[in-house]
Amino acid sequence: MSSGRKFLYALLLLLIILLLAAAVVIPRLVDVDRYRPEVISGIEQATGKHASIGHLALTLLPKVALRADGLALANPPGFPAGDFLTAQRIDIQPDVLALWNRQVVIRALSLDHAVVHLLSDARGRRNFALRATPPARRPLKSVAWTPSSWTLETIGRIQFSRGLLTDGTLLPSGVPAPTSLEVQGLSGEIEQFDWNTLIGAPPPRVAAAGLLPSAWLASGAATSEAAAGNGSLKADSLRFGRLEGTRVRSQLALGPRSVSLRDLKLDCYGGQASGELSFDFSGINTHYRVQAKVADVDMARLLASFPQAQGKMTGRLQGNLDVTGELLHSEDPLAGKRGTGQVTVRNGRLPALRLDQKVMELARLSSLGPVSGDPSSFSSISADLNIDNRRITSRKVTVLGNGLDIEATGSLTLEGEGSLDYSGTLALHASSSQNLLTTILANATGARMKNGKLLLPFRLTGTLASPHFTLKSSLAPRGTPNLPGLFKFPPLRR
What is the pLDDT of residue 216? Predict the structure, then answer.
C-alpha cells in the first residue's frame, strides 16, 4: 500500500474518531437544560396546555435530537386535576435548517412509556382539545437563544412504545366515570401527524386571522376526507366497555376528531376477532362503530364479563356484528347502541334453562326425546340479532338440542337481571315404532305431529338468572284425562 493511501486512511480514521468524540463530548459541554423554560413555553404556545419537563439533554448520534425526560401536559381548566399526557422519555428530532432560522419544526418524535388519559364532559368538551389562549406564565429570563416560532402543524413521524391509553367521561358531579376504553402495552408509529386536523382546530396561520375552531369546521376547510395521520399499532390488551382482547394488531387512520382502527385483529376469550373499530369525537358524546367477525370464542369466558349473564351458556361462538353507539356511563350494556348481526354457538349447554316438567315427562313416556342425557345441552344455537331500544331482538332463533329442536322469536334485555320474552315451537323427536301413542299424545296436548316430530308451542319469559319455560297449549284439555295421571300407567309391553 502506498504511503499516500496510508495517510488517507489514517486521516479518515482520525476524522471518525473526532466525530465520535464530538458526539460524546459536545452534549456534555452544551447545557441545553438551561433552555428548558423556553422549550416549555413553546410547547404551551403550541398546545394551549400547562407543560412541565424534568430534564433536557442533547444527542448527536444517530441523529441530532433533543431528549426530554418527564414530560407532562396538564388537563385544561374545568377538568379534574391531573395530566392529559405524560411520557417517561421523548426524543425530539428537529429540522436543523429551521433551527438555524430560530424556528422549531419537529420532524420526528419518539415517546417511551407515554400515558394518555382522554376525558370528555357533559357539554362535549374534551381535555385534548386545543385552547384558543395558551396558559399565562411568568416572564422568561433572557437567554442567548430563544426560538421565534413553534409549530405542531405536521410531524413527519411519531413512534411510541410501552404506552397506555384510556378514554372516559365526567359525571355531572365532575367525578370521572369508569373508563370505557383502555389500551395497555401500546406501541407503533404514525406518519405525517397533523395535530390541528386531529382536534378540528384551524392551523396557526388561520387562527391568526381570527377564525375560531367551530368556524373552521363549519367552513368546510376541514373535511372528513382530511387526514391527520396514518400508521399502525400493536397492544398487549384492549378493553372496550366490558369486552377485552389481547395481542392487538391494527392499521391506524386519524381524521378530523376521529380515530379508526382498520384491519384490526385480536385474540379474545380463547378465540379470534377481526374487523374495524372507529371513534368520532365531533359530538357531545363520543360515537363509535364496531364491525367485527368472531370465531371460536368461549361463551363461558365471554359471559363471565357480564355479571347478569355469567354461567348461563357454554359453547363456542362464531358470527359477525355491526354495532354503532355512544360512550355513555350506564349500568345497561345496551344503552346507546344499535346494530345487527348473525351468531352461532356450537356444542354447549344452557345450565339455567329448565324445560317444563310436562315436556320432559312426554319425552320419557313415548321415547320422543332423550330417555337419558342432559336436556340442557345443544349441538348448535343460531340467531339473527337486532340491537335497538336497549333490547336484542331476533326474528329467528334455531336450537338443535339433545333429542329436541326449538325455533323461536323474541327479545332480551341486559339491564339489571335482564329480561326474556321469546315464543316459538319445540319439536320432540318421535320414535317411528310408537305412532299410535304419539298420535294419542298429540291429541291430548293440542300439539301436532309433523315429519316424525311432536310440535309444542311454548313461551320463555323471566330473567337471565331465572328463566321461565311454559307450554302455550293445555296438557289437560276438557274431556281428556290429564297427563300426569297418564304417566301412572304401567309401561307398554312390546
Answer: 41
Closest listed residue to residue 416, CA positions, set 330, 311, 339: 330
Query: What residues form DSSP beta bridges with 268?
Result: 271
Residue-level pLDDT at 479? 39
Q: With a cut of 50, which residues of the chain have pLDDT below it?
A: 7, 23, 25, 29, 132, 142, 205-224, 366, 368-372, 433-434, 474-494
Q: Do 273 and 180 sit in the same domain of this protein? A: yes
Query: What integer pLDDT is reported at residue 316 of this predicted model?
Result: 97
Q: Are residues 190 and 60 in the same domain?
A: yes
Q: Strand ranges (DSSP E) for 327-447? A: 337-349, 377-388, 391-401, 404-413, 419-429
Q: Tell whether 178 and 53 lie within a shared domain.
A: yes
CA distance 346 to 60: 60
Query: Of the candidates 131, 160, 138, 159, which has an alpha carbon nearest to the alpha carbon of residue 46?
Result: 131
Q: 271-280 and 287-298 as β-strands: parallel, antiparallel, unpaired?
A: antiparallel
The pLDDT, as a whole number, for residue 132 is 44
> Tell me: the pLDDT tens digits for 316-348?
999 999 999 988 777 788 888 999 999 999 999
381 DSSP β-pair partners? 345, 399
Q: Is residue 358 part of a domain?
A: yes
From 238, 260, 285, give the residue that closes a domain.
Answer: 285
Quote the number of domains for the chain: 2
What stretches of 195-260 show up as alpha helix (H) in DSSP?
A: 195-199, 204-207, 213-218
| Nearest-angstrom CA–CA distance, 52 and 65 | 19
Task: Return the DSSP state at 430.
Answer: P
Specify which residues 460 forms β-bridges with. 422, 469
Query: In which domain, by residue range, is 428 found?
Result: 352-486
Q: Supply the DSSP string of 275-330, one letter for each residue.
A: EEEEEE-SSSS-EEEEEEEEEEEEHHHHHTTSGGGTTS--SEEEEEEEEEEE----
Cell of 107: 420532524
Q: Which class for 288: exposed (0-12), middle (13-18), buried (19 or more C-beta within 10 A)?
A: buried
Name the domain boundary from 242, 264, 285.
285
Positive/negative CA dihedral, 451, 453, 459, 461: negative
Q: pTM value?
A: 0.76
* Domain match, 275 and 364 both: no
Question: Residue 2: exposed, middle, or buried by beta-carbon count in 10 A (0-12, 13-18, 19+)?
Answer: exposed
Task: Kindly report the backbone phi and psi dihedral angles of residue 350, in degrees, each rounded to the nearest multiple of 5, phi listed first.
Answer: -120, 80
Q: What is the pLDDT of residue 149?
A: 56
Q: Is residue 475 part of a domain?
A: yes
C-alpha to C-alpha distance for 406 and 398, rounded to whole angstroms:
6
